[in-house]
Hints:
Elements: E1 6-17, E2 20-31, E3 35-39, H1 46-54, E4 61-66, E5 69-70, E6 81-84, H2 96-106, H3 111-124, H4 140-152, E7 158-162, H5 170-187, E8 190-195, H6 198-204, E9 207-212, E10 215-220, H7 222-227, H8 232-237, E11 242-252, E12 255-260, E13 263-268, E14 279-284, E15 289-292, E16 301-312, E17 316-323, E18 326-333, E19 344-349, E20 355-357
Parallel strand pairs: 3-8, 3-9, 6-7, 7-8
Antiparallel strand pairs: 1-2, 1-4, 4-5, 9-10, 11-12, 11-14, 12-13, 14-20, 15-19, 16-17, 16-19, 17-18
The structure holds adenosine-5'-triphosphate and magnesium ion.
Amino acid sequence: MTPETAHVRVSHVTKRFGGVTAVDDVSFEVPKGAFATLLGPSGCGKTTTLRMIAGFYDPDQGDIEIAGKRVNELPVHRRGTAMVFQDYALFPHMTVRDNVAYGLRVAHVSRSERERRVAETLAFVGLKGLEGRWPNQLSGGQQQRVAVARALVIEPQVLLLDEPLSNLDAKLREQLRVEMRILQRRLGMTFVYVTHDQEEALSLSDWIAVMNAGRVEQAGAPWEIYYHPKTAFLADFVGAVNLVPAKVTDLADGTVTVSFGRHHAKVRRPEAPLRAGQEVQLCVRPESFTIAPPDVAAAGLSLPGATVRRAFLGDTMRYWVKVDDRAWIVDQPDPGGSATLDGAVSLSLRADRVHVIAE
Length: 359
Ligand SMILES: Nc1ncnc2c1ncn2[C@@H]1O[C@H](COP(=O)(O)OP(=O)(O)OP(=O)(O)O)[C@@H](O)[C@H]1O
Ligand SMILES: [Mg+2]
């Protein structure tokens, strides 16, 4: 990325609280207009990173740049950022209208312009008609929209969102996820979004940085993170996965042959350095298999096995299939009512769905 296209740049940023290193030498760049997400388990440093971009915390080391300008010393209200907090932090003693107008009042925007912008923003987030309500008279989803409106009304260059959907039920979360993405596209605004929910991150983002213990473990496009994780932690964190010990038996340009149990597979060679004889792990997503009765010929890599357990998940049937002495998780999409498999089955797997993790 050239310096001109990076909208937010975090360079070697470290933040300590007493003896705890909350953020440990973190670097990343977010292009202008991107939906970027920091994903990671509780306590990995997501909020701390976001707060440093917003200016609520000073980094102990490293630099934060917005639109090519170092902002370390710039106060919160002069960075061109706005933040949506996890708990929304609405003012309970102010109506929806006054909550949204607050930032404009602080910035001494004239009354007429304030009224115009508040009305426009409330309409934009679908809250028209609720201007006079108090926060405790709103549903969780409506409160979340007020929090977003309050941030958008000041017309930030960069919107920072800290787990804005985590307090909502699953159905509403899914709906607001779609709205969030449409909103971001329509505004062409740069979003830095924080979540510990992998599904949310995968479905919303142009780019994801997965954090663990204060560090960025891997950053890239959602599919890259999902199918080509660099570590077992990442593979496991971003979804259901089969992690299977294997051994490198042969190396070629672009491919690697691995053996596991009685089986061999020639698969894509990962970026990490490899040598013959090395112990690695295979990462295979449950939906990458095709499962069929035992007499059906398998295309690609064929693994005969037997079902040991199954769970109906609605859109998929999840099987645990024993192959040799290991149970693989296998998802069959669109299972229907009666076509469940029992006992001996044939699994098939395309070699391009097998990813090698060398740690
Ligand atoms: N103000 C603070 N004082 C002391 N320690 C803090 C402070 N803020 C955060 N920490 C510690 O820094 C680490 C990172 O915290 P942070 O809030 O950034 O995590 P997070 O990834 O946002 O987690 P969660 O998903 O639970 O919100 C944690 O160990 C936390 O206890
Ligand atoms: Mg947090």
